[in-house]
Amino acid sequence: MEETTTKKRVRAATAGKKRATGNPAGIRRKAAVKKNASATKEKALKKVAAKQRTPGKKKATKKAADKNKAAKRAAAQQKVATKQKATRKKAAKSAARRANPTGTATAAKKKLAKKKKRPTTKQPADRKSAKRKVTKKAGRRSKSILPSADKVEVVTEAAHAEPVETVAEVVQVQPVVTEVDVFPAEAVATSITHPDWQAVAHFDNNGIQPINFCSCHLTVPQPPDKNIGQTIILFIGLQSIAEQRLLQPILQWGRSQMGGGRFWSIGSCVAKGAFGLEQSTDLQEVAPGTALKAIIALNDVSGNQFVYSCFFEDRPGTRIQTDPIPPLKNCCVTLEASLIETRQHYPPEPLITMKNIVVQRNNQMITPPWRLEGFSEHGEKARLRRVQGQLDQIDLFFQS
Fold first, then answer.
1. pTM, full prediction
2. Which of 182, 242, 334, 399 is packed most tightly, with the most Cβ within 10 A?
């Protein structure tokens, strides 16, 4: 009994000593377990916090994307609005021109007057005596000395079409006296006021005998580089400016009252006023590079009533014949265009040439006193090329 009591005391003392001195191994194990538990808990908390932050981040990213889309949409709408505003402004300007042609003509003259005159090139002293001036004066037929050289080009630009007298300088190589058919100076041409006629060569026939035939050759250009709904029309025509009636076989790109689309097409019409059509054919699509011949002919005359026809040669569906109408005294070769904003809205070629132009009066070929002008919003212009022994050619430039 005493021994048992002694053992108990020894064990108790040992336990107390252990409690007093501690158990390092056990303490380390407990600390490691506690640390692992803390790390696991911290990791779990971080994971929960990350999950809680993710929806907010996604929401912020989506909000930023929506904001960018809204900004792009607003910029696109602003661009469309600006373009529509410019189109409306141009349409209003065109309507004002049509409503007040006198004011438009005055403005056009002022615009042409601002253009700089082309500098003249001085001729060598030994050639000055060879220069001759062919002056068209009122009320008489003039005899003039013309060059006999194979090719002498007479270039007249729209900016120089204002003087009443038409003077052409040529170089005399071997003088040959030739009688030139000219009209009185006051009958050269009435100023054109159509706002969409960007470049035009034209003249008035105020003589007793009417124009009974005119024609020209042309080749279909390539399509424009860009399409924005623009309309381009090329034609030779006869018109009465007083009656506002125009007879024309047309080559057209785009749409008009006659139809059309994003392709070249041909047809004939009688236009009346600013937007009216008295007669018209259906348009026929033609491919770039196609050679065409446009023709206008006088078929019948009864008093002061004339019956004309116009068509493209070998294209039966393009032919029309007018009702009896007053005479058409103004002949024109024209580049008409609307909704043109840049050079890329024209064909890629720099110009189109209206070749082999024939104008007859009383079945006799004449040498027209062409007047060159136009509104030329993007540098468009007309140029006459006249070479002795050849038919006239008129270049219609899409840009100078």
1. 0.55
2. 334
